[in-house]
Design a protein that fits this description.
single chain; alpha+beta; two-stranded antiparallel sheet; about 30% helix; about 20% strand; globular
């Protein structure tokens, strides 16, 4: 696989073999996009603080409506912080999230700085997650988003104020071997496909169609 050297990490300029065998773009797409997928297996080695800082810094620069920057992050790194996250992640997801060295709960501030409602807070938090995931891929880390957790328990455990909405838990770390997963998950540890972009297009009504 060819690479472009970028400071302390390498940017792939071709699809990895496993991605090339599982995914096919219908239009030119940079390999960084397709090479990013969501594994469940993670190595136990810790994520260096400087790489974690880079990933979060990238999310900081996501697009933001009126530059409100509503995204917020709970980051679990220590054993004690991980234990807090385990109290609200559902058991079937803990089968693999317990192996991730970093867990990030993405949240967003529902109100604007002037106290009015921010209708774009969840949209912007999603943009921050996308940028975070791509930056993680760029520095050699893997990510997987988890929606399977108890939000009420999370609010209680984290002391989340009412003005904050909780979204997804993100597992972050170095990709591990699928053999570390329960047998039922091993066959699913591979890149998946997508429907065509055309199938996601909705019709735009025009005067002639009304």
């Amino acid at each position: 696989m060819s690479t472009i050297q970028t400071q302390d990490w390498e940017l792939p300029v071709r699809y990895t073999e496993e991605v090339a065998n599982a995914r096919e773009a219908n239009a030119p797409v940079h390999p960084l996009i397709l090479n990013r997928w969501s594994p469940r297996a993670y190595e136990p080695r810790p994520v260096p603080e400087e790489l974690l800082a880079t990933v979060l810094e990238a999310a900081r620069w996501a697009p933001s409506s009126s530059n409100q920057q509503p995204w917020r992050f709970y980051v679990a790194r220590t054993p004690e912080e991980h234990e807090t996250f385990r109290s609200f992640i559902k058991p079937n997801n803990r089968l693999w999230t317990d192996g991730a060295p970093v867990l990030i709960l993405i949240a967003s501030e529902k109100l604007k700085e002037d106290g009015g409602p921010n209708g774009a807070h969840a949209f912007d938090a999603g943009a921050a997650w996308g940028i975070l995931a791509l930056q993680a891929q760029l520095v050699g880390l893997s990510t997987r988003a988890v929606g399977g957790y108890d939000r009420d328990k999370a609010r209680e455990a984290l002391g989340t104020p009412d003005a904050i909405e909780l979204h997804a838990v993100i597992a972050l770390g170095y990709r591990g071997d699928a053999v570390s997963l329960p047998e039922a998950l091993r066959e699913r540890e591979k890149p998946n496909g997508r429907r065509s972009a055309r199938d996601s297009l909705l019709p735009v009504p025009t005067a002639a169609r009304r």
